[in-house]
Amino acid sequence: MDDPRTLFDLTGRVACVTGASSGLGRRVALVLASAGAHVVGVARRREALDSLQAEGGDSVATVVADVADRSRVSTLAKEIAAGFGPPDIIVHAAGINMREVADDVTGEGWDTTLELNLSAPFFLSQALVPAMKERGWGRIVNFASLQTTRAFPGGIAYGASKAGIGQLTRAMAEAWSSHGITANAIGPGFFPTELTQAVFDDADRATRNAAQTCMNRNGRMEDIDGPILFLCSKASDYVTGQVLMVDGGFTAK
User: How many other CB atoms sit within 10 Å of the CB of residue 19?
Assistant: First the structure.
């Protein structure tokens, strides 16, 4: 039997994390680097990426890009591979929530939400999968949400995109897992990030959300570490097409 402590070791792996400039994306990038991976963080904000690179050191490179710009996907894939080589792991953490109620949803808001939250994970993965196929090993981790299965006020476009992530993950698994590439999704509950700032700014609302979990608390950044390492490592070799909810039991109640 192999030493089980090596199951989560990412030494020699190359990971790409989108949305790496802040929140859970930034946390994921640093966790993967701490596990031995070389990490390429992708986001639109140069200053925030510089901060990530400073903290991650030589294990982290960055690319400034809008992953929703489909015309640049091929170029972006090359830029991602320029530093450490083509990635073995891609984590799609970039996302947006316009918080438009159904009656006020605009075409622009709808398109922006689905382009970033749903289309970008597919087309960037599609561009990176050929190199994974050549190696016979790869990890795709999408970001799902409580709204993958639940309806929230002001979340119709966001919810539609995250419900789509659930099916996209299963379809990716069907398409690529026979090549050694697993595709899974992680579904965070309420974590204190830029995307959920409005929720945490409302103390009563944050308290109500915590009360809806089985653990009676909202997420802490470190709660994402173990689940993401599991899905990105050898530990999950026989896990694919799944949505792992990291929500303190919010969706269990």
Answer: 28
Give dist(CA 41, CA 16) in Å, integer. 6
Between CA 13 and CA 35 the distance in angstroms is: 10
What DSSP designation does 45 have? Answer: -
Q: Please confirm, yes or no, whether 158 is among the known catalytic residues.
A: yes
Cβ–Cβ < 8 Å for 229, 27: no
- Backbone φ/ψ region at 12: left (φ over 0), alpha (ψ -120 to 50), beta: left
In sequence order, the β-bridge partners of residue 142 are: 92, 185
Furthest-apart CA atoms within the chain: distance in Å = 58
Amino acid of residue 23: G
Structure tokens at 49: 């990426």
Spans of all domains in the chain = 7-252
198 pLDDT higher than 90? no
CATH number for the segment(s) 7-252: 3.40.50.720
Summarised one tens digit per residue, pLDDT across range 116-154 is 999 999 999 999 999 999 999 999 999 999 999 999 999
Q: Amino acid identity of 10?
A: L
Retrieve residue 176's tokens: 């690529």
Q: Cβ–Cβ contacts within 10 Å for residue 8, how many? A: 16
Q: Could you give the dihedral angle defined by the CA atoms of residues 136, 42, 218 and 225, in that order, rounded to the nearest 10 degrees?
A: 40
Q: Which of 143, 158, 190, 250 is the catalytic position? A: 158
pTM for the complete prediction? 0.96
Q: What share of the chain is helix, strand, coil (3-state, %, to 5)?
A: 55, 15, 30
Structure tokens at 95: 């996302």
* Residue showing tokens 């789509």: 164
- Residue 41 one-letter amino acid: G
Residue pair 224/191 in contact by the 8 Å Cβ criterion: yes
